[in-house]
Design goal:
This protein has 391 residues and is an all-alpha fold. The protein has 20 helices and no strands. It has a single domain, classed as Growth Hormone, Chain: A, CATH 1.20.1250.20.
């Protein structure tokens, strides 16, 4: 019976992988143009505040997720969120009214974060073999990243001379196949997912466990890094360095390659040989040095900037898969509901990061902002040194 249940779970993995891949393409296609899109309607120093509001909504959804799952069920809740996501992004493509754009952008940011959380619950339900956690998580991310690395180039080509509506339309269209796969294949898997504890009730698990607490702080720092780099790098390259969107799109495609190249091998090495700790420390050091290096470049040298951005993501890709692997090795079938607080690091990192980033950018320059980010990443080494390795 246990083998049959496991086989049933394993058989659902391809549907989860494909859905996550398409959802990632949907999100990444617009993620690097969002800040420039908003800058058409509000000053650059306030763009971070709109992102922060979206993160606040994400946190609110995570708080009420247990109640929603209990009342509606994972299957119907996921379908409802996908429909809302399609509507919000589609509206961004066609409206020119500033108030509607800002409100719908906040709603879209809140919903898309919750969708990735729901897919985490699906994946955790379908993959219960601890000895393969790093490989399953690494493959899960690597498959998606292999496809989404082309999305910045595609976004740059679609954008042309500021045709943002084209990018948002294509992004919205990627939600449709995800919705169809969920409707057809996820109903049975949804029945295996219990309502999670929620963020507040899950906090004591991290307070009592030094290892989970350390990886939680490391993950929050990673999200802090993503917040500043995703929101401010496109504006900096476009407005201050003078690159056009075709150049930026190609630059970002190269930048994202480490997520496809290194995450699965790193997950395999963490499972088989090293554990996660050493790779985590190395990742944070590379992130820190490369980001500080980015702050020192004051000329629009395409090759040099691309190499530096590539190195920032070498570090980030290692930190991402190692925090995933470590956390999900520590979270078994009996306490998998604490995924909620682990996923809350995303919106929390964005919320705190963009509030601070908006203040730094208001007072200082982009160079100071990126230099400070590089220094902050060194705290990841401090949080990681104290955890007990899995090998």
């Amino acid at each position: 019976m246990q083998t049959a249940v496991r086989d049933k779970h394993i058989n659902s993995l391809p549907s989860i992988f494909v859905s996550f891949l398409l959802l990632s393409f949907h999100a990444i296609l617009v993620i690097y143009i969002n800040s420039t899109f908003l800058e058409q309607f509000i000053p650059a120093s306030r763009v971070g505040l709109i992102f922060a509001a979206g993160s606040l909504l994400s946190i609110a959804i995570l708080f009420i997720a247990p109640w929603l799952i209990k009342k509606i069920g994972m299957y119907y809740l996921t379908i409802a969120m996908l429909l809302l996501e399609f509507f919000f992004v589609g509206t961004l493509a066609f409206t020119k009214v500033t108030t509607i754009i800002l409100v719908f952008f906040i709603l879209y940011r809140g919903v898309v974060a919750s969708l990735f959380y729901f897919f985490d619950l699906f994946l955790e339900s379908a993959s219960k073999v601890e000895s393969k956690t790093g490989r399953i998580r690494g493959l899960y991310l690597a498959l998606a990243n292999t496809v989404v690395i082309i999305s910045p180039t595609l976004a740059g080509l679609l954008l042309g001379e500021n045709h943002f509506e084209r990018v948002y339309i294509v992004s919205a269209l990627f939600v449709i196949p995800v919705l169809l796969i969920v409707i057809r294949n996820f109903k049975n898997e949804s029945a295996n997912i219990e309502s999670p504890l929620g963020v507040l009730k899950a906090v004591p698990h991290f307070v009592r466990n030094k290892n989970l607490r350390g990886v939680l702080f490391a993950r929050t720092l990673l999200q802090f890094f993503y917040a500043w780099m995703v929101v401010y790098t496109p504006v900096y390259l476009y407005q201050h360095m003078g690159f056009d969107w075709k150049e930026i799109g190609f630059m970002f495609t190269i930048m994202l390659m480490p997520f496809a190249l290194f995450q699965f091998p790193a997950g395999y090495l963490a499972d088989k040989k090293y554990g996660e700790k050493e790779i985590l420390i190395f990742g944070f050091i590379v992130m820190s040095l490369a980001t500080i290096g980015f702050s020192l470049v004051d000329i629009p040298n395409f090759l040099l900037i691309t190499i530096i951005l590539f190195l920032t993501r070498v570090g980030a890709s290692l930190v991402e898969i190692m925090t995933e692997s470590y956390f999900f090795k520590k979270v078994d079938e009996d306490n998998s509901n604490i995924i909620s607080i682990f996923r809350a690091t995303g919106p929390i990192g964005y919320l705190v990061g963009l509030l601070i980033g908006s203040l730094v950018l208001y007072l200082y320059s982009f160079q100071i902002l990126f230099a400070l980010l590089g220094v902050i990443m060194l705290f990841g080494v401090y949080f990681t040194v104290g955890i007990k390795d899995t090998k």
